[in-house]
Amino acid sequence: CVLCGRTDDCPEKYGEKRTYVEYNLTVHYYCLLMSSGIWQRGEEDEGVDGFLIMDIRKEVNRAAKLKCNICKKKGASIGCVAPKCKRSYHFPCGIQKECIFQFMEDFRSYCWEHKPVQKFPDQESRGTSQCTICLDLVEQLPMYAVLKSPCCKNAWFHRECLQYQALSAGIFFFRCTVCNNKDKFQKEMLRMGIHIPEKDASWELEENAYQDLLQCYQHCDIKRCLCKKGRDYNEPDSKWEIKRCQCCGSRGTHLACSSMKSWEQNWECMECRSIFAKSGKGNYSKQKKRSLAICEKTDGTTCLLEEPSPKCPRQSPGPQRNFVLQSPKIMCQNNLSPCSHLELPASNRVTMSLSPLMSNRNGSLRKKHLRKQRTEASNILKELKLQVNTKTTRLNINAENIWNSALKGFRQRNFSPTNTIEIKFTNCKNRSKTDTSAASKHRFFQLLMLHLQNSSLFEGSSAKNLSLDFQAVKENLYFEAGKMIAVSLVHGGPSPGFFSKTLFNCLVYGPENVKPALEDVADVDVAQTIKMIKYANSLSSLQSTIHDCYEFLAAAGCLRPITALCDKDMLVNDILIHHVIKRTISPLESFRQGLKTLGVLEKMQMHPDVFSSILCHKPERLSAETICDLFTIHSSSDVNKVEGADFWMGYLQDVESGESVVTLEDILLFVTGSYSIPPIGFDPEPTIKFLHIRYPVGNRLLNCLELPITETYEQFKKKMEFTIRNTLRVERE
Q1: Phi, then psi, of 678 in degrees rounded to 5
Q2: Domain PHD-type spans what residues (predicted)?
Q3: Which CATH architecture fits 624-732?
Q4: pTM score, two decimals?
Q5: What pLDDT, in 10s, does the model give residues 551-586?
Q6: Domain limits, the chain
């Protein structure tokens, strides 16, 4: 190695040793990273991972003049960053002397005297415990070779074990082996010199690592198999397709052998049926995967919702009023009324009867729960954003033709979702000086989500499902729409907020596990036909209705013999599944593929409740409390922070109550360039500074609101309203 002079090839200790014959150069990767006088000035594919060859030679010449304080040889390229410390050393010598190298930010290095140490309470017991990685004993002492978990009281590790674990797991999977904490654990380990590479886990990169798991059971176990080609014959998308038991997966049947339709997935083998029967679950055939249960409505139809806890008490009768609850899961968590009182329209809101006091309390609980879910969504999206690198892709956008210019940008050869996106509006002649890159990007995604909501790709009023647009299918536009939504979420744009619960459930659980409702039908004529069948009050009127819409039913493949009035329920169910799901199965699959961009769909399936809060609901209306919590107040020592904060909070209350000419959305736009808070949050986080200035300043580059120091509240309010109103008026013009 040209920097440390050693021939050792130990990637776990010194990083990968690379030799470049054309440059007559060999170097350890960690020696290069930690050298004090060199920076990555090139792109990743230039030189050695962005370190230019010319810069490496300069660093070698610089280090040749420095003597290592450990081995006393020349070539010490690493220096301690502690003030007034002049120690220099080679990377391997530093490891041997127990120096700390921080593989983050500025890649700082600390010598053996100034290195950071972990602090332990004096009353904490000393002794031995088990390393939770290698399971050998480890001494509970503040030593270089021993590290303690910052999130678990009794979790101790060997440094060497942790380093091997980090190299194997990578940044996405390296976490505390006891409590699974990631953020706090990684931050402390990086501080203590553990290198966490920005790569996927080694087990994810191994070719065919999960090949055995992909083998599916393919055998018909029905007593009388009807297939002439044998029990092992399987022909997908035909009556001889084999379906596996949804409970155990170790028994199968041909569709024809069990008289099943091609779209039906919920088949249980005899063994599983007997288990359900013995456990007293009653109607086992109506149980769905992922705790989805079917619940009878008062009008005889069924609705799909999450299975309530068996411990939920029934709501006692009393004074009642209608109350709308957005999430069935909240109902179950808050011990509300049983499933028999629920009704589930297309918007998937649950209507129930509660006392006025109960409804007010649960309204606030619902908001609190929704706010908590959106906080979790922000953390998940920030985790996904770690994939985004600093390489920039510029998109030239025409705001008046947002869809075509966005489509052109997303399809250009050099576009990558993992690159940082920069937006330039080509039709803006006089761009405002405050229109920063972040503000332009948020405006672009806002216009794009608005266009998608009103496009022909979706149908419905407020809660939308996918439509069937043959031209869009041909041009693969559903894939692009899914990709754009995924990119918007991860890159700091707004969420769509217009998905119906049916569409969301199809994406997360699969269309075969979803039961659509009448409100999911956007076509007025089809909805009217379904209503006529659904509300037919006699067998003759039902048969007359079916005769009138015979062609429609034949085209939909929903013709069935009607011998009793109760047959209408099955017919309505067939029509709904055909029109809402089977008819749009091709757009749905294409849309799902697009949402897989940057791993968004995978996270949706792992955290359905969290993503439902941002994909199926519009952002809640801004309040003074929301704005107040959003901004962190900073002030210099000569500023009365308390008085300034009082003026600021008083002004927010005036704006919220309508006693101002500006709105809370205007304030947010003035500071950040955005009308709403994106699901991922703002980067950097919004701050407030109180300064000796005449008028307030909105620094959109830093998301910083600089406020003037005034003697009275009236002066403060007057300056705020004058500046914000006129700034936004000029921007609009």
Answers
A1: -65, 155
A2: 1-115
A3: 2-Layer Sandwich (3.30)
A4: 0.52
A5: 888 888 888 788 888 888 889 999 999 999 999 999
A6: 17-110, 128-204, 455-618, 624-732
